[in-house]
Design a protein that fits this description.
Distance between the termini: 37 Å
Structural class: alpha+beta
Low-confidence stretches: 185-189, 192-199
Order of helices and strands: HEEHHHEEEHEHEEH
Radius of gyration: 16 Å
Number of helices: 7
Strand content: 25-35%
Shape: globular
CATH topology of one domain: Aminopeptidase
CATH architecture of one domain: 3-Layer(aba) Sandwich
CATH class of one domain: Alpha Beta
Length: about 200
């Protein structure tokens, strides 16, 4: 690949994308940067205790440390931020390489946006970007009582959870983003706005 072609692809990946949620509201997806750490920390602090427990497996998480870690950039990770037109953080997603072919994925959306499709959109976009980097498989650890998140992985990406050491381990190919798009009348994500039809 030429330098120009590689630069063009990176520019397309870094360009903000607008998505339309099930309730008709819109969000903008863009890469997460270190400068987002304070806003990400504020977003995490605004989550209810139950949402934090389901995301971090504990309600007493170190929010400063998590925000710093998530906002940290590097060649081994892809971070996404979803914001409102006014700039408020609505959700974030992250995948971190476990090896050259596998990455772990995590996602969180604002309490009042559950069921609006944003979680599915974030995972779909992560899978697409990860596949372009050569990652073949995404994995996630989910608490057994986090039925909403498990439904997203099952319904949109065809994942089959396996119970291991107190958590449900979810594993699916990065290529599943294509099946997710075909499964619904409209694509999950494209430049401009869309209307996802998913359960989270």
């Amino acid at each position: 690949m030429s330098t120009a072609a590689g630069g063009g692809r990176r520019a397309r990946e870094d360009a903000p994308l607008t998505v339309q949620l099930r309730d008709g509201s819109v969000a903008q997806l863009r890469p997460l940067t270190a400068a987002d750490e304070p806003r990400l920390r504020e977003f995490l602090a605004g989550l209810c205790l139950e949402a934090r427990r389901l995301r971090f497996f504990t309600g007493g998480v170190d929010l400063d440390g998590v925000a710093r870690s998530v906002a940290q950039g590097g060649p081994d990770r892809i971070g996404l931020l979803a914001t409102s037109p006014e700039g408020a953080v609505l959700g974030h997603a992250l995948c971190v390489d476990l090896d050259s072919r596998t990455a772990e994925v995590a996602v969180e959306v604002a309490d009042d946006l559950h069921g609006q499709g944003l979680g599915t959109i974030l995972i779909e976009r992560l899978a697409e970007l990860a596949e372009r980097r050569g990652t073949r498989t995404l994995v996630a650890a989910v608490l057994p009582d986090n039925s909403e998140m498990l439904d997203v992985f099952r319904d949109a990406f065809g994942a089959v959870p396996h119970f291991e050491q107190g958590t449900e381990t979810v594993r699916f190919p990065t290529s599943a983003w294509r099946a997710a798009r075909r499964r619904y009348p409209q694509p999950f994500l494209r430049p401009g706005s869309i209307k996802p039809r998913s359960s989270a």
